[in-house]
Structure formats: C-alpha cells, structure tokens
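ugh ok fine here u go
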Amino acid sequence: MSGARILIVDDERIARENLEHVLSKEGYAVVTAPNGAVAIEEIEKEEFDLVLTDLRMQPVDGNQVLERVRELYPDTEVIVITGFATVSSAVEAMRKGAFHYVPKPYNLDEVRSLIRQALEKRALKKEVIELRRRVGAPKDFPLLIGNSPEMEALRRTIEQIAPTDSSVLVLGETGTGKELVARTIHQFSQRAENRFLAINCGAFTEELFANELFGHEREAFTGARGVKRGLLEAAHGGTIFLDEIGDMPLSMQVKMLRVLQERTMMRVGGTEEIPVNVRVIAATNKNLKQEVDAGTFRQDFYYRLNVITLFVPRLAERKDDILLLSLHFLNRIARNQGKQIESISDEAMGILLSYEYPGNVRELENIMERAVTLARGPAIEPRHLPVDLQQLSVRVRGPRREFLTLDENEREYILWVLRQVNDNKTRAAEILGIDRVSLWRKIKKYEQQ
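structure:
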C-alpha cells in the first residue's frame, strides 16, 4: 500500500528517525511523534492507516495510544514495539486490539513484513465495507474477496448483468466460489429482497429431484398426503441456483427448459400450469459443449441457460489475491475460535504464495482453518501448515507435481520478492544481495522467456 499514512511514536529519537527514513523510502507517508501525548494529538487531527508505537513512554504510554486509536478509528491497525518485552505486556496489547507486538531490537525485514500485512488487513476491511455498501448486503454476507484484475473484471460484469433477469451460466473449477458469484448476482439484483435458493443437481435421484424442484399434489404417489410446494414456487420473485447443472438428468432438463421458455411449471401429479417468476443461475465445472456433443446435455437447454456466461478464475490465476484471502480467512477463523492470531510469518506466506491450489479458494480456506487451529502464538508459522506444504520443494501443476530447475526456482523467487516490495527494484536487489544492474538483466531475461 504505497502512500499509506503511518504514524511512528517513539521517545527514542534515533529509533524514531531510522524507522521514518526506512518507511519514507518505501513510499509511505510518515508522521512522527516523540511521545504518546503528541501522538494522541496527531490521531485526533487525522486518521492513519497504521500506527507503530513504543510501549513505555511518559506521560502517556503506548497502551493509551492504542486505546485512543481504537476509540476513534477501529479499522486503523496498531503495532506495538518495545524494548521491555514481557509476556504480560504482550498479552495486554493483543487483548486491546494490537495487530502485533514486536520486541526490541527488532529485525527490520520482519517489521516491514508486519507493516505490509497490517496494511493489507486494513485494505481488506475497507474493501469489504465498500463492497457491502455497493451491494447493499447485510454485515454477515460473504463477498468476492480480491483486488486482482481478474476479480475486478468479474465484479464489474456482475454489476452490469445483475439488474437484468437474464439466465446466467457460471463456469469454473470446484472450489473457486461459483455459488458465491450466484449469491452476489442475486444481491445486486432487483430480486434481492426475495429468496435465493440453491440445489445441487447431482445430489438427488431423478424422482426426488422432480419432487424438490416442482413439488407434488396430494396423492401424487404413495405417501403424498398433502400438497407440497417445490423450490421453484418457494423462490417465486427471487433466484434459484442450480449447482452442478451438468449432472441434471435429461428428463429434468426438458422440464426446466419449459420453465425457462414458458415461465410456467406443473407439480408432480398435477394437471394445472403454475406461473413461475424466478431467475435461474446455473453453475458447473464441466465443459457443457462437450456434454452436448456427447449427447448427455440437451443443446436447446444449453442455449437457454447460456444467455450470459461468467468464468470464475482458478486461484492459481489470481495469485495476487492469496495474501488478501489468507488474512481474510485468518481473521474470520481466529475470531470464531476466540484466538488472538493477527499475522502470517514471511516463511509461511512464501509457502502459501508458491502453492498452486488444485482445490482453489476452498482449499486455501481449509489450510488456514488448520493453521489457526494449531497455532498458539500471534502468527501463523510454516509448522502450522499441512505437511506437504511444509516440504514444498516442488510446485504443483494441476493434479501432478513437477520439479523446478535452478533457473526456474531463481525466477520464481526473484519475481516473488519483487511482488512483496511492490516492484521496488532497488529494495529487491538489496534483499537478493545483488546489484540493481544484475537484477535488471535477470528481469529482461525472464521477459524474453
């Protein structure tokens, strides 16, 4: 977050000025305060994205600074730095809402990493607030997290198509979030006040499927003692989401085609047409064109569904979102488990960024749930990740694994370092231990590959 506003509070002039120099060079807008009292004056004048404060100061200490930030700006992150580190003071700072607690002398790269993660968390909060404002969604409504170009393009398309009543076909691999896309379309639409109902087309036998979708009349079959409204009727005025549409039996495809064409349906055992006012959103991880060619999916039904097609990218295709998603899951899961875990170590984040995620976002969520469950300290470490990730000396490509050459490993690492420092080549060269000219030559070589 180049340009983020950071307040540094420390009564040691050299420590304060050194940190100011480092962060200013990295593009942050830095304000300093020589003590807690001045810091609170600055905080009361303007909002900061991040506050780094020493703990022991007179007459106002770091805990008081932390408390005032929390009162005025709950979304501003605070990192507490102290030369008098104790377990009790760390616990107290974390209990009051500090993002992290760093003892002096600290490792500058570690602090840079914490600053980056704190600002990402701040950006995530602002993004969620803005998305919920735009969508008009309730506070607990899940959102499409990510600021990669792929996710921005997907959100723009959703905003454009949601107000219409056109059928939508959502394509993507398992675990990419196709149902979440469908729910977001519904929430943006004029049907948002009505129901959103989802059904998995592969979870029922043909008879049960018909009964669930269309309902039945009294005595339509043995045991049918009364009239039952199906999901299509229950979703009247709203949206029905047909997940795994590629698994829908051919006979049901015929019936759903009539619903889409005529906007009417008939209960099982019924004789009267019932008007149906629903928007249909379908999803699949199959190639429906191939299914049509194979005769397992009706061509006319495919064309009726395929008015608008959305592609949900694989997580490996939007790796810029992994840090944001990891922090999102970390914050939510830690809160649910009642744990004070605020960050992910550089080593653990490096592993998460290098993994290919064949299970996509759902797999990342499961990985973070495991990590939070096992973690006891304030940060996720490599030992909290699954064993196969801890031993990640290979890169996953689809269902198989492939060893990287030394050149490929070097390229992956250099590009990863550049991403971490927002393409600051001078800083990247310092981290890599090479001069800027050598780095420039390597980048040129990669661009030609």
